[in-house]
Design brief:
It is built from 24 helices and 18 strands. With about 575 residues, the protein is α/β, with parallel strands linked by helices. It has four domains: about 10-110, Helix Hairpins (Orthogonal Bundle), CATH 1.10.287.70; about 135-255, 3-Layer(aba) Sandwich (Rossmann fold), CATH 3.40.50; about 290-430, 3-Layer(aba) Sandwich (Rossmann fold); about 460-585, Alpha-Beta Plaits. The strands form four sheets. The chain has a six-stranded parallel β-sheet with strand order 5-4-3-6-7-8, sandwiched between helices. Helix 16 (about 400-405) links the parallel strand 13 and strand 14. The longest helix is centred in the first third of the chain and has 29 residues, at about 85-110. It is elongated.
């Protein structure tokens, strides 16, 4: 209707069309002028004498002849053979049209090579692909190492992703990886609100925004745009500084991840409560992978190589636990609280000056992966029992770091990816991990022993289940009929009700009450409860069957093995009556 704004996608298509027409305006006017002049001249030129009268071409015949002559150099003279005067004019028209077409084609080729037009067409195609997505998808801004890990993990879990990346080289890498579905990708600045709208920020099937660019300013802009244009969507953002994290928190960003600060807290926890640290590693590792019981970070003198952003956070973590630190850096700071060695940490002399012989631990945290590996190898040769923490800046160097058996390898991209996936796939995991950090060492030790006795040192699968009609139909119907069903009953096997399926309920969130941490086995389930579970591979499918299948749940609760259908039950009853009538009397 008049006065209504044009939708952005339609406006973008109009802008592409207008851009093309503006660039082709001059050559098109020239072609039209050449054809008009050629037609006019051909109608005025005298033709051959037929029946004593001089013939002239009509406008229709002249336009017809010029049309095929200007495009194909003609195939005959109509309706009569031309006179010399007409042929002279046609010869002039041929050269004029050749010049006009050469100018037009040159303009077209220049236009096709124009990056602005290519970008506009790419945006139109991208917007159309996003609008056609009919499944839930996540908007990922930034396709570096972290973005690639998250996209691959979400793709394996059945979620669609849309990628916005400002670096053309990184954006082109999307085609190098085998995703189960197409991944719409746009090379553009994600901090532009129009770009985010084209990427599906306000799309009805967009279920979350993940800001992973290398720029804190861009991540902050993405968080603000998502908060204002799509406040219902959860937003996960990467922040390198505390100031940026504070700004994001002020705008209601759902989850803010600073990988270095997160690892600093983890290191402080490992020094203060080793059992809690081991428990966190078990619950946040790659599901299905087997981890060894990690060596606990020892107390004593530590050496830190590289006083950058990550190094300062490591120093804060060690200072919190009152552990003395010697810092090796090329540019020492005015710091009276720590011992400094001004040198290159890859030099064995510098390590010896820092006291490597009797040091308990070393943190190699420079911005160079090669330097960090060199420092670690040299330090281990000087002190075989040294506890080594390595910073791996680039995930592509994982083979080199895997070859060196460090105690802890800090990979920022993996920290962010695991944190994002934990928040997106299992929202209850974050509050449960916060509980672990607050509990004492004795509680964490008991919890670690409980989980490892049941599931070993294999990282369990972590998932959440909400007790409602859509996710747990069978259980929900039983509860709405007033039946009392406990956690212990749901953890039995539907194949043998006297065996367990190998999973634990770690956390229970309730709408009206406080959440329960490691709820007791006899805790009754209520409609609307949300459970956080950990189990061995395959336990999730078994638990899902217990709460969704009426026959499996009935067998677990009563021991009765229900038949598969109403028809089967009717046939069984008829068969029983028939056998009762025909059986001989004793």
């Amino acid at each position: 209707m008049p006065g209504e704004p044009i939708p952005s996608s339609t406006a973008r298509q109009y802008s592409v069309f207008l851009m093309i027409m503006r660039r082709l305006r001059a050559p098109l006017i020239l072609l039209i002028a050449i054809i008009a002049l050629s037609v006019l001249g051909l109608t005025l030129a005298a033709g051959p004498v037929v029946d004593g009268e001089t013939t002239y071409l009509s406008f229709f015949h002249a336009f017809y002849f010029i049309s095929y002559t200007a495009t194909t150099i003609g195939f005959g003279e109509i309706p009569y053979e031309f006179s010399n005067q007409q042929r002279l004019w046609v010869l002039f028209c041929i050269y004029m049209s050749a010049i006009g077409w050469a100018y037009t084609l040159g303009t077209v080729f220049t236009l096709l090579a124009d990056r602005n037009l290519q970008q506009a067409i790419a945006v139109v195609r991208f917007s159309r692909a996003v609008r056609r997505i009919a499944e839930p998808f996540y908007l990922v801004c930034g396709y570096g190492e972290t973005g690639r890990l998250i996209c691959q993990a979400l793709d394996r879990r059945g979620f669609r992703v849309v990628v916005v990346e400002s670096n053309e080289t990184h954006a082109s890498e999307v085609d190098f990886y085998s995703y189960t579905t197409d991944v719409p990708t746009l090379t553009a600045d994600a901090h532009n609100p129009d770009t985010l709208q084209h990427a599906g920020l306000t799309h009805r099937n967009c279920v979350g925004v993940i800001a992973l660019t290398d720029s804190d300013a861009a991540n902050l802009a993405i968080s603000i745009t998502a908060r204002l244009l799509a406040p219902r969507l959860p937003t996960l953002a990467r922040a390198a500084t505390r100031e940026t994290a504070a700004n994001m928190a002020a705008f209601g960003t759902t989850h803010i991840i600073n990988p270095f600060e997160k690892f600093g807290h983890t290191l402080a926890l490992a020094l203060h409560a080793p059992a809690a640290w081991q428990l966190l590693n078990l619950l946040t590792g790659l599901p299905g992978s087997t981890i060894e019981r990690l060596r606990e970070p020892p107390r004593g003198n530590w050496i830190l190589c590289g006083h950058g952003r990550f190094g300062r956070l490591m120093i804060n973590a060690l200072d919190t636990e009152a552990i003395p630190v010697t810092i090796i850096d090329r540019q020492p700071q005015n710091d009276i609280h720590h011992r400094w060695v001004q040198s290159d940490a890859t030099n064995p002399t510098a390590l010896e000056a820092a006291g490597i012989d009797d040091a308990a631990g070393l943190v190699a945290c420079t911005s160079s992966d090669i330097d960090n590996l060199s420092i670690a190898v040299t330090a281990r040769e000087l002190n075989k029992n040294l506890f080594v923490i390595l910073r791996q800046n680039h995930y592509a160097n994982r083979a080199l770091f895997h070859a060196f058996d460090s105690d802890i390898t800090v990979v920022p991209s993996k920290i962010i990816a695991h944190e994002c996936l934990a928040v997106l796939s299992t929202p209850l995991l974050a509050p449960f991990l916060a509980v672990i950090r607050d509990r004492d060492e004795e509680w964490c030790t008991r919890m670690l022993d409980r989980l490892t006795r049941r599931m070993g040192w294999t990282v369990p699968e972590i998932w959440s289940e909400r007790i409602n009609l859509s996710h747990a139909p069978a259980l929900y119907r039983h509860l709405m009929r007033g039946e009392t069903i406990t956690i212990d009953q749901l953890l039995h096997s539907h194949a043998n009700r006297y065996e367990y399926i190998g999973c634990e309920v770690l956390y229970m969130a309730r709408d009206s009450d406080d959440p329960l941490v490691i709820p007791a086995a006899n805790t009754p389930i209520r409609p609307g409860d949300e459970l956080l579970l950990a189990g061995r591979p395959g336990a999730r499918n078994k638990f899902d069957l217990n709460i969704s299948n009426e026959h499996a749940l009935s067998y677990i609760l009563t021991g009765d093995d229900l038949r598969e259908s109403w028809l089967w039950n009717v046939l069984v009853r008829q068969w029983k009556r028939h056998t009762t009538r025909t059986s001989p009397e004793p």
